[in-house]
Amino acid sequence: MRRTFDYSLxxxxxxxxxxxxxxxxxxxxxxxxxxxxxxxxxxxxxxDQTMIKNYNLDLFTYTLINLPQVLIDxxxxxxxxxxxxxxYTMVYGVLEFINxxxxxxxxxGAFVGVEVLIGFNNAGKLSNIPVWQAYAFLILAxxxxxxxAGTVAIVVERAAYxxxxxxxxxxxLISAIGVSFFLQDAIRFVESxxxxxxxxxxxxxxxxxxxxxxxxxxxxGNIVDLNIQVKSLIVIISAVLMVMGLNxxxxxxKLGKAIRSVxxxxxxxxxxxxxxxxxxxxxFLIGGALGGAAGLLYALKFTRIDPFVGFFPGLKxxxxxxxxxxxxxxxxxxxxxxxxxxxxxxxSYLSVFTLGAMGAEYKDILAFAILxxxxxxxxxxxxGEQVGQKA
Length: 391
Description:
By secondary structure, the protein is mainly α. It has helices at 2-41, 49-52, 59-95, 102-122, 131-161, 170-194, 230-252, 254-264, 266-271, 276-302, 311-324, 329-353, 363-377; strands at 45-46, 57-58, 200-201, 211-219, 222-229, 304-305. It has a single domain, classed as ABC transporter involved in vitamin B12 uptake, BtuC. The longest helix has 40 residues, at 2-41.
C-alpha cells in the first residue's frame, strides 16, 4: 500500500509539470513558426526609429530578435489567465454552472492583498528590508487575499446559489451576474469609506521589479539578452505550484475523491454518506482562494488595480477555460497558456506586420477570433469538457 501511495503521489505531482512543459513548448513552437513564416514572406526593410532604435532591420530579423522575450512575456500572462480559469473550471466541473462572480472574487483577493501591503508600507515595515522579509510579506498578503476571496466565495454560494440549485440553469446564471455587480459596488463602497480611493497601487519593495538575465543569444549578428522580471518569475512559479497542488488535491486526496463523486452524481454521492452541500462549499472555497491568489499576483505584475480590475482578466480566463475545455483542470492550464501567448504575440507583432494599420489594441480581437475558430471545429474545447457525466 505504501509503495502504491508513493507512486500516486509522485505521478500526480510530476504529471502537471510534464503537461506544462509540453503545452508551453508546443504552443510556443507553433506560434513562433507562424510568426517567422509570416515575417519571411513579408520581409523587407523595417525602419521604425522608436521601435528598433535607429537600426535598419528586415522584418524577419526583427521578428527573430524579439521572439525570445515575447515568448517569456506570453508564458507569464498565460499562467495568470490559467490560475484564474482554475476557479471557473472547478465550479463548472461540479455544478455545470458558470460563476460569473468569480471575476469580482479575484478582485477582492487583489484588493485585500494590496491593502495589507499598503498598510505595512505606511507603517514603515517594507522599507530597507532584507529580500527574505520582502518575500515573507508578499506570501502573507497572498494568503490573506486567498482567505478573504475564499470566504466571500463560500458566502456567495450559500446566499445566492444554493437556494437556486434546483432551478432552471438560466436562473442561477442571472443570479451570478447580479452578484458580480453587487461585489463590484461593495468593493467601491468599502474603499470609499476606508481610503477614499478607488485606484490602488501596490507598494514598491523588495527586488520584484528587477530583471534577471539568464542567457545571451547571438541572432544574425545581434546579441539578444534574455531576461525576466523577478515578479514575472514569481507569477510563473506560483501558478505552477497552484496547478500541481490542485491536481494532487482533486486526484489523490479524500476531499478530491468526494468532489469527483459529487460531480459525477450528486444523489448517489449523498446516499454514500458524502455531505454534498459541504463538498460544494469546499469547491467554492478552493476556487475562490485560487482566484484571490491570482488577484494579488496580477496586482504584483501590473501594479495598479481598481474595483473593476477583475472584469477583463476574468473574461479572458473564462475564455481560456472554454478554449481548453470547461470543467477540465488540464484544459484550463492549456487554454490560459494559449490565450496568453496569442495575446502577447498579437500585441508585439500585429502593428509591425500591418505597417501600423492595426496596433496592440487589436490583440483581443485576434485572440477571440481564434477562440471562435477553435470552438467551430472543436465545440468542447481543445481537451474536451469534463462535467458530471464524464467525471
